[in-house]
């Protein structure tokens, strides 16, 4: 079964707002809105993550390597990779996780 969510936006701190867009047991799509200077602190999780940059300009770090991304870019973060980002121009990231991140529900 697929679930289209009506989840509210959640202020997760550091200039970031999260909203679950849709999910099922195997997959979850989540929107993250960033203020200028907003940060996704370094972290890791067992889920494979695909990130699409809808808008803005960010520096991402994955397992100690940093790179810049802008609107239209996308990339995959492997399971358990330590990663995070800093927002240089306000923007939105669309992240897809497999399997679903139950901690976001």
UniProtKB/TrEMBL annotation:
Sequence ranges assigned to domain Cupin type-2 in this UniProt record: 32-92
Highest rank taxon of the organism: Bacteria
One Pfam family named in its UniProt record: Cupin_2
Signal sequence extent: none
Protein name: Cupin domain-containing protein
Gene source species: Ahrensia kielensis
């Amino acid at each position: 079964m697929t679930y289209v969510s009506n989840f509210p936006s959640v202020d997760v701190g550091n200039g970031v707002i999260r909203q679950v867009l849709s999910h099922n047991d195997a997959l979850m799509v989540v929107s993250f809105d960033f203020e200028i200077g907003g940060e996704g602190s370094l972290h890791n999780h067992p889920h494979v993550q695909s990130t699409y940059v809808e808008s803005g300009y960010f520096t991402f770090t994955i397992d100690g390597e940093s790179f810049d991304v802008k609107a239209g870019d996308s990339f995959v973060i492997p399971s358990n990779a330590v990663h995070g980002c800093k927002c240089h121009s306000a923007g939105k990231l669309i992240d897809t996780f497999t399997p679903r991140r139950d901690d976001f529900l």
